[in-house]
Amino acid sequence: WYDRRYYTNGTKDPQGAASGTSRVNRGGSWNSDAVNARCAIRYYNTPGYTYYNVGFRPVRSSVP
């Protein structure tokens, strides 16, 4: 769950809140600016939020 302190306390790998109304989204996307396209970036949205650039989308190249 999202907690404002999640972003401001400087803790490495924080636990977050025990409950709340918004979930933390970890990582950027192909649609992010270069500075935000990294796994350490954090956002938050409601639990049912969906959008084309949110989610885990692995990519694998073909193996010869």
List the helices and strands and how they pair.
Blueprint: H1 5-8, E1 23-26, E2 42-45
Antiparallel strand pairs: 1-2
Describe this structure in words.
The model has no long low-confidence stretch (mean pLDDT 78). The chain has one helix at 5-8, and strands spanning 23-26, 42-45. The chain is built from one helix and two strands. Strands 1-2 form a two-stranded antiparallel ribbon. It is globular. By secondary structure, the chain is mainly β. It starts with a helix and ends in a 19-residue tail after the last strand.
Query: In DSSP terms, counting alpha (H) and pi (I) runs of 4 or more, how many helices?
Result: 1
Radius of gyration over C-alpha positions, nearest whole angstrom: 14 Å
How many strands appear in the DSSP assignment? 2
- Which regions contain 5 or more consecutive residues with pLDDT less than 50? none
Please supply descriptive tags for the structure shown above:
mainly beta; two-stranded antiparallel sheet; 1 helix; 64 residues
Task: Offer a quick outline of the entry.
By secondary structure, the protein is mostly beta strands.
